[in-house]
Amino acid sequence: MKNIYDISEVNRCMLCLNGPCEKACPKGIKISKIIRSLYFENAVGGIKELKNNDCSTCSAPCEKACVLSKKNRHVEIKNIFTDLKKQSQDYKPQTNKNNKIDLSSEICGIPLENPFLLSSSVVSSTYDMCSRAFEEGWAGASLKTICNFPQHEASPRFSAIHNHANSFCGFKNIEQLSNLSVSENMEIIRNLTKNYPNKIIISSIMGRNEAEWTMLASESENSGASVIECNFSCPNMENESLGVTIGQSEELIERFTRAVRKGTKLPILAKLTPNVTDMIPFALAAKKGGANGIAAINTINSITGVNLNSYSAEPVIHGQTIVGGYSGHAVKPIALRFISDLSKCEELKDMHISGMGGIESWVDALEFILLGSSSLQITTSVMQYGYRIIEDLLDGIKNYLLSSDKSSIKDLIGLSSRTVVNHNTIERETITYPVFNLDKCNGCGRCYISCMDGGHQAINFDNEKRIPKLIGSKCVGCHLCRIVCPARAIDKAHKTIRNINS
Ligand SMILES: Cc1cc2nc3c(=O)[nH]c(=O)nc-3n(C[C@H](O)[C@H](O)[C@H](O)COP(=O)(O)O)c2cc1C
Q1: Contact in structure between 329 and 360 (CB atoms under 8 Å)
Q2: Fewer CB atoms inside 10 A, N or C side of the chain?
Q3: Cα dihedral sign for 117, 123, 335, 482?
Q4: Is the beta carbon of 274 within 6 A of some atom in ligand 1?
Q5: Last residue of some domain: 392, 419, 446?
Q6: How far is 165 from 148, CA to CA, in rounded Å?
Q7: Statement to judge: residues 63 and 113 lie in one domain
Q8: What is the pLDDT of residues 64-82, one digit of tens each?
């Protein structure tokens, strides 16, 4: 099903708290919920929620109530919903296997009601926060990393790379670990396991020496945690011998995992850093030390920008900054690459993979699952949009399964692994041409500009009619034109031909 509503208009929505648009709707349509579904790539969810409502003749009080109407142009809610209604005619509800969809998964053999966990960070710092997330549908949480030494945090501690007006795609933090004491954190674990027996509590820990790693693991088990996660990867530690420094040494990973194993019989996840060229030796070291799985990725060393007035890099703290951890949607490709490497490694086949790094929508989540993750963890998109994203994560996957030949998440784990092959294996003999869909083309000429200056000068552009035309003899099939086309008017040809250069 092709989306016909204007996604750039959807992206203008502020995703408000208790959207005033919704309150103003005389028909009681859940407007903000529907727009959120469209924002998070869950058009089917939006269509289902719109039900049989037709907004085309409404005077649209929702638009007058839109917070943007005060200072700016309101979101064109009526147009979006009218287009969505039209799109719903293409939607055929498919009932797969009598609607029996199974969203459950597992973590190191322990059942998970769904694959989604809060990853260790500020989003899982307190009992109250985890409790609210669990009530909204999260299957569990890896608590903010617990340690036995005080934290001194800098302020401000975040900066971001924005993609369009209302959201950021990349996020830098320079935060360290939990500022609560070990006993306060153990109390949180005890209360969460008592009040939420079906949720999975992962105790994320970091010690300064073997004795501390053992003690933290043992206390976590005694308090009722289900899994221990060793933080071998925080890039922001004030004490430079901790965090990522451990994660960049096979010897230290093995030694400290062994120390953790000494303190617990629970499953152990080693949370590894992407700040290495190849994660496999570090994962193998963790396995040797007694780990049952890998959690990846932690954040990537980064500088997000420089303040052009003060000449200081961001976030500016008294004229200075430090290199800090980058996360959010922008890091997804890097995370997926590490997940793929881990799941393809024969010696790690029996290890659980808990994937994270840039998951925002159900599509991102499925990509991690298809490349081999059985559980998923999320921080940055919760920081940006709130625990409520769980709604579309679950609903999006459910709608996907309903329209596929699979009925369970477990059927999808690792299915795409075999599609990632070596550089010397990929087929390089044929060209797949781009095909221009002139009904959709708006004549902007962006394909021409990119092909001229960044491609192979394989497009002619009729300036009168504003129509692009492919020059087949020059086209190498790189598909830059398709990727840059703002109107999504260029497709892949179904047929490919043998490369004339080969
Ligand atoms: C503000 C912030 C604090 C974090 N604190 C921790 C932490 O205490 N322990 C840890 O293992 N990872 C920590 N992380 C890393 C996240 O758990 C996660 O690995 C990373 O952000 C990638 O996932 P994401 O793109 O969904 O955020 C933190 C990340 C952020 C953004």
Answers
A1: yes
A2: C
A3: positive
A4: no
A5: 419
A6: 41
A7: no
A8: 999 999 888 999 999 999 9
- The residue-averaged pLDDT of 141-154 equals 96
pLDDT greater than 70 at residue 97: no
Interval 148-171 mean pLDDT: 92
User: What pLDDT, on a 0 to 100 scale, did the predictor assign at position 165?
Assistant: 65
Residue pair 368/360 in contact (Cβ under 8 Å)? The answer is no
Q: Are 399 and 1 in contact (CB under 8 A)?
A: no
Minimal-distance CA residue to ligand 1 atom 28: 121
| Catalytic residue (choose from 21, 55, 230, 234) | 234
Q: Decide whether any atom of ligand 1 lies within 6 Å of the 357 Cβ.
A: yes
Nearest residue by C-alpha to atom 1 in ligand 1? 173
From 159, 299, 301, give the residue whose CB has the most ligand 1 atoms within 8 Å, as the site to mutate: 299
Residue 235 Cβ inside 6 Å of ligand 1? The answer reads no
The pLDDT score that the predictor gives to residue 473 is 93
Statement to judge: residues 338 and 357 lie in one domain: yes
Sheet holding 167-173, edge to edge: 158-164, 167-173, 324-327, 300-302
Average pLDDT over residues 337-354: 98
Last residue of a domain, one of 363, 391, 419: 419
Atom 24 (ligand 1) nearest CA: 357
For the chain, the helix, strand and coil percentages under 3-state DSSP, each to the nearest 5? 35, 20, 45
Q: Which of 84-98, 198-212, 357-371 has the lowest mean pLDDT?
A: 84-98
Q: Determine which residue's CA is closest to atom 14 belonging to ligand 1.
A: 121
Average predicted confidence (pLDDT) for the chain: 95
Spatial distance between the Cα atoms of 367 and 414, rounded to a whole number of angstroms? 9
Across residues 106-114, what is the average pLDDT?
Answer: 98
The verdict on whether 234 is a catalytic residue reads yes
In the predicted model, is pLDDT for residue 120 greater than 60?
yes
Evaluate the CA torsion angle 310, 313, 316, 322 in order and state its sign: negative
CA-proximal residue: ligand 1, atom 7 (nearest)? 121
Ligand 1 atom closest to the Cα of residue 327 is: 25
Which tens digit of pLDDT belongs to each residue from 238-260? 999 999 999 999 999 999 999 99
Q: How confident is the model at residue 91 (pLDDT cuts 50, 70, 90)?
A: confident
Task: Give the CATH number of the domain where residue 49 resides.
Answer: 1.10.1060.10
In a domain, 424, yes or no: no
Q: Number of folded domains in the chain?
A: 3
State if residue 336 touches ligand 1 by the CB under 6 angstroms criterion. Answer: no
Domain coverage including residue 439: 430-498
Is the CB–ligand 1 distance for residue 359 below 6 Å? yes
Tell me how far the alpha carbon of residue 328 lies from the centroid of ligand 1, in angstroms: 9
Same domain, 414 and 437: no
Is any ligand 1 atom within 6 A of the Cβ of residue 203? Answer: no
pTM of the model: 0.96
